[in-house]
Amino acid sequence: MTEVRKPGEGWTFRRDAIQRFRFVRAALDEATGRVELVYAFDDGPALVEALEIPGAPFALDAPRRRALDAALRLLHLIAGISYYKAALPPELVVESEVPDAALAELLTAVYEDGLGEFAYRNGLSLRGKIRFPAAGDGAAATAAGLAPRAITAIGGGKDSLVSIEALRDAGVEQSLAFIGNSPLIHACAERTGLPAINIARRLAPELFDFNAAGAWNGHIPVTAVNSAILVLVALLRGADQVVFSNERSASYGSLIPGTGEVNHQWSKSWDFERRFAAYVRAHVAADLAYYSLLRPLSELAVARRFAKIDRYDAHFSSCNRNFHILGERPAQRWCGECPKCRFVFLALAPFMPKPRLTAIFGRNLLDEPAQAQGFDALIEYGEHKPFECVGEGREARAVFFELAARPVWREDALVRRFAREIAPRIGAESLPALLVPQGEHGIPEAVWKRVGESFRT
Questions:
Q1: DSSP-derived pairing of the beta strands 4-6 and 20-29
Q2: Which of 218, 310, 316, 355 has the most CB within a 10 Å radius?
Q3: Long-range residue pairs from 403-408, CB within 8 A, at least 24 positions apart, any chain
Q4: By CB neighbour count within 10 A (0-12 exposed, 13-18 middle, 19+ buried), where does 173 fall?
Q5: Do the beta carbons of residue 79 and residue 43 sit within 8 Å?
Q6: The pLDDT of residue 332 is above 80
Q7: How far is residue 12 from each of residues 38, 209, 281, 352, measured CA to CA in Å?
Q8: The pTM is what?
Q9: Neighbours of 179 (CB within 10 A)
Q10: Phi and psi angles of residue 305, each rounded to the nearest 5 degrees, phi first
Q11: Among candidate residues 437, 191, 439, the one with its CA nearest the CA of residue 312
């Protein structure tokens, strides 16, 4: 294994020899909006992650500053997952305030379940091996004096745009928030006409050196990190809601023979949402609500709502290749070759005129025989659900059954193949049944009263 030596520091990154991961310190400069999150392995150099939150200087009274301190600690401990995974040392050391029991329990879930795909792909088992120190029950949160407005996460895809328009229709004041410098997200945010907060995040550069030297690498629960960042932003801006756009389908993972369920989207699941929201309300700010507006909806129900909005057709994209930190990005907004492109095309097909959909993607993915295996994975036919943010297999199957009955789609190569070869071997799925809002959610009652009825049509 290659070694990484930091000049003048006499420390070498040896993945399997590292024994401790240290949460060193976290700081926020209210005058500039700069956040520093500092970590280290053993006695190695400080790994400094930096955030720049626009809007400074921030004037905070005592209740909001108390809440902010708790939110900063929460962010520091959650964001450490990006670095911890590089070596997976057996000991976790928190050098500032030791987590309370509730926070330690939340963190254990974030690290174990959030690294589920990472562990599976690397042939590792993390269950029972991640132990955060804990002391006491922690102080109960008080109200931070927040105003009735939302910080709404925007990601450039259809889901967040559905939430934004639903909140707008419901008369909820909102500011959009996104992390990073994606031109696509910038364009979508501008298209909404709403105020936007663009947070800069810079990972510690040493992490990329460690990766090149053989560090463990793979998927992390990015939504958990982003959720903690936006809680901090909401407190700085005095907003009483942090809104994400994770549908109920995100709670279902990939069923791996011999392994069980592995959920690529765990930090978008109801399990994460309820745990994280409960901790924020109980130990950060009693008047801060964290929730997903789309939780009662399936992916198909979200697609149906998005199809009613045409102002973003030339701007949105759910293709994750647009958002890679490293590597090639598609020349167009849609690569047309990945699970996200396939699923979004499929999900929109029952609800959009065919010419509109093919104009968005620049092609008809369902008339490309070479894409058969990729669509088979979406319907879980001889393949497991892809490790991507896509809907359930039953949703994809329901769409294929629906399209096979429609003259405008049934002659396309993959729809015709489905009707001929696959449909006779599997049970039919009902599209209408998947469009009904259902299940638990954390949407505040006042907001649900304003959006719930529209979600049923």
A1: unpaired
A2: 316
A3: 403/349, 403/350, 403/366, 408/354
A4: middle
A5: no
A6: no
A7: 18, 11, 42, 56
A8: 0.93
A9: 20
A10: -70, -40
A11: 191
User: Exposed/middle/buried for 87, CB within 10 Å: 0-12, 13-18, 19+?
Assistant: buried
Task: Report yes or no: 177 and 149 within 8 Å, Cβ to Cβ.
Answer: no
Beta strands in 95-226 (DSSP E): 147-153, 174-179, 196-202
Number of residues assigned to the chain: 457
**Beta bridge partner(s), residue 289:** 241
Instruction: Return d(Cα 160, Cα 153) in angstroms, integer.
Output: 7
Determine how many CB atoms are found less than 10 A away from the CB of residue 220.
21
CB 273 within 8 A of CB 245: no
Mean pLDDT value of segment 304-315: 95
In degrees and rounded to multiples of 5, residue 54 shows phi and psi of: -70, 155
Euclidean distance between CA atoms 346 and 348, whole angstroms: 6
pLDDT in tens, 173-187: 999 999 999 999 999
How far apart CA 428 and CA 424 sit, in angstroms, is 9
User: Cα 138 from chain centroid?
Assistant: 27
pLDDT grade for 139, boundaries at 50, 70 and 90: confident
